[in-house]
Design goal:
There is one protein chain. This protein starts with a helix and ends with a helix. The protein has 2 helices and no strands. The chain folds into 2 domains: 48 residues; 30 residues. The relative contact order is 0.04. With 80 residues, it is mainly α.
């Protein structure tokens, strides 16, 4: 193999490596975009209240109101 042929192979190798690195970089960008999208969708889904959560809040409010009513009844009993 002559020096010129060796230089040509070396240059070809560098071009191939550069092309592969560019493809890998593009793939990493796409992967980062997909991950960011999934995180955004996941966070949005966490913000929504489901029916069970709404029911739980209603139960909490009812229990709190019942507690306040008992407290008021106890105070009225003491006053009499």
């Amino acid at each position: 193999m002559s020096i010129q042929a060796g230089a040509g192979v070396s240059a070809l190798k560098r071009v191939q490596v550069a092309a592969q690195l560019e493809r890998e970089g593009e793939m990493l960008k796409k992967l980062a975009l997909v991950l960011a999208l999934l995180l955004t969708v996941g966070m949005t889904a966490c913000e929504r209240e489901g029916p069970a959560e709404r029911t739980g809040e209603e139960i909490d409010e009812a229990a709190e109101e019942a507690g306040e009513a008992l407290e008021e009844a106890g105070e009225e009993t003491r006053e009499e």
